[in-house]
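Request from the bench team (R.T.):
"We need a structural guess for the complex before ordering more adenosine-5'-diphosphate. Sequence and SMILES attached. Just send the tokens back."

Command: build protein-adenosine-5'-diphosphate structure.
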Amino acid sequence: MNERTPDQVAAEAARELQAAVAPAARRRLGALRQLAPFIAPYRGRLLLALALLLLSSAAFLGVPLAFRGLIDHGFVGGGGIGAHFLGLFAIALVWGAASAGRFYQVSWIGERVTADLRSAVYRSMLSQSPQYFETTQTGEVLSRLTGDTTLVQTVVGSSLSMGLRSFFQFAGGLVMMLVVSPKLFSVTLVLLLVVVVPLIWTGRRLRRLSRESQDRIADSSAVAGEVLNAIPTVQAYTNEPFEQRRFDRAVENSFATAIRRTRVRALLTGGMIGGVFGGIVFVLWLGAQAVVGGAMSGGALASFVMYAGITAGGVGVLAEVWGDVMRAAGATERLMELLSAQPTIAAPAAPQVLPASQQARVRFEHVAFRYPSRPQTPALEDFDLDIREGETVALVGPSGAGKTTAFQLLQRFYDVVSGRILFNGIDLRDLDPRALRAQIGLVPQEPVVFSADAFENIRYGRPDAGDEAVIAAARAALADEFIVRLPDGYKTFLGERGLRLSGGQRQRIAIARAILKNPPLLLLDEATSALDAESEALVQRGLEAAMQGRTTLIIAHRLATVQRADRLVVLEHGRIVEIGSPAELARSGGLYARLASLQLVA
Ligand SMILES: Nc1ncnc2c1ncn2[C@@H]1O[C@H](COP(=O)(O)OP(=O)(O)O)[C@@H](O)[C@H]1O
Ligand SMILES: [Mg+2]
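Reply to R.T.: structure attached below.
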């Protein structure tokens, strides 16, 4: 359908050539240089691989020479066939051994560099503050971590060495043709340009089309993935025919792209066989005349044809490798972006050391804060609060008032815009965030349960805790009673593919985690909607165990919790509107009294 005229092909080829040497492409290739620090530690292996590459290339290029000797002296000359075969055999041995060694060394470097790169990118991601993940899709990070690193691996672990080998093959083949017969060499050079160059451009188009077809397949599986995860909704709305059509469209698209690719591929195969073979026949014909005329020996002609084949093969592989290298350059660029991301929250050059203490005093000093993604809206304003050692302070207020924000700031996931927060008298910004967070136990509103057994899930609070300590914490959090009833008790696998826990059970696991960590400061974000009355009472008792004897800041939704707090802080639109004991506030008839009368604390 859209077969193009040779003129169009040539025009596109010119455009592509221009694009290939354009500054953008050169900059892109420059990205590969950033891999140097990852390869540098394996310098020794790299040199070894290079030496083996030279050796195998030399052996490979020696094969036609050996044939020439065999034909001219072995057959025609009539003597010493055995010696010539021994020579060929020795070349084969060297070639094989050197190739195996090179393949092993280069693949080893590729795998090692990829593993190091993956680990470095992951480390960088783990150090990013939550703000980073507000703008970066985790799915994208994952695909870079797997897809892009694999591209880099292809290049470092095979394409580069293949490219280098093909380059030696190409350059060596050219030189040897020139040595064997300068006249035939000039003819072959012209043929090479006429036949191979168009083939290269077709090959590039083919690669682009294969990528496109891969993308289309990914599209269709994205559609399917989304729908299959929502089967009950699809069926409830009887939208199966609609979804079928949507998927079919995606499938047809990928079919059309695949067919376009196949058409180009068929053309390429035809051109390759016809062009290369035709060219070889032509050179053979010229050479045969020279042999008949006595200007050239039969062996020389045979070796010449072999060198021509070697050269053409080298060019073909080089073209292929070039595409891989460009793609890997793009992948490297993206990976380096992830690697060079600076965490917005970092430890100061010389962090202050927190005195070892089981006490925590927290002071918010006229704190103001706006989320970086919403700089116009203040999330907290003039937030001023002093929480004494061992005190329980409850934050209450309507949804969106800024309660969770106060927790985020206290854990230093964000920095305050003005004012400051002190932990045991030290500004949070003068502390190593990890040292600070080691002092804090958090029970989030929606606790995370990892794909691991109950032991491991609770141990997340203190990785070195023994089984006894884990069970004690689970008992205190009232998690023990449901864990022992699971099929394998504490060894039951929890999480996505394993057992599903209810909201209240998940929360009690999180409380056990915090109790096991035994931190001086406890932050509790109470859950409400997820819990029925019974598990609410259980969670409540678990929480009380956790709060014993430590400073606790709690976002309270339940009247029971609020009653037990030493002080209540009522927030509205990021400002503290009331502060006092529960009894005082109930009497004062303010926002809290109103919320409480509705039984609606948050
Ligand atoms: N990551 C965020 N980026 C931008 N705005 C946010 C973010 N998290 C919360 N907010 C906004 O900040 C305000 C306070 O939110 P939050 O502290 O979660 O309230 P609460 O916990 O009291 O319900 C809300 O207006 C909310 O929309
Ligand atoms: Mg909240």
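Two things stood out. The pocket of adenosine-5'-diphosphate (ligand 1) is lined by residues 134, 371, 373-374, 379, 399-405 (CB under 6 Å). The chain has two domains: 8-339, 363-601.
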